[in-house]
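chain below, 229 aa
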Amino acid sequence: MEKLHREHPRSGLWPLLLAPLRVGDEEFRPWATGELDTVSASEPDWYDPAALLRTGWEYSTVVDSDGEPLDPDEMSELGRSVAPFLDGWPGTAPAAEHTGDPDGAARALARELLAGNAHLRIGLVAAASGAEALTACGWSGPVNHEDDIAKVSAVLLDWERRYGTRLVQVGFAELELSVAAPPGDERSALRIAAEHLAFCPDNIFQGAGTLTEYALGLVGAAQWSFWWD
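prediction:
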């Protein structure tokens, strides 16, 4: 994996660790079952990542899955989850001042993931980065949340620039990113947690429960994980 990653500038092939839907899945869904759609309806550079995150926040905190306004009980419950941003979308967090070595962080995470899971395979995608590889390979993991993967790639590209992230592993509906410049304190982490909620609300609403709790796990974290139900 490390050699393939180092050869990317020459080969043009981005290596990704591929995980199946379930451990021991002989079909190796979705990678070996024809569930990828490489005909993208759009391209990552069509989109403004900040606008995408704002929209994601609003659809996760203002309206329900049908686009209807949340009722008072739902709003009350939601308030506990999204504090301290009760007044709405706080905007994207500022870029990290120093991003360290993003590619070194990616290779370190790849070694760790490979050591912990013998069921992973390596996929090579003709793409400039891991973020763009998602669109190029036709992944559709978060289809219940977002059916245009180019929008997902657009946000990941923005995180590559601001936080030195790299996409390292892709599962059926999961992503694992290395992070070269994680937030160093809770205040910074809260802003990034809001972005994570806008990008993948299941991380908070079906995971940590509150932004505050979720943000604590981001401080100093060299790995970001996302999963969609």
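Strands lie at 13-18, 121-126, 165-170, 174-179, 223-227. The chain has a mean pLDDT of 90.
thats it, cya
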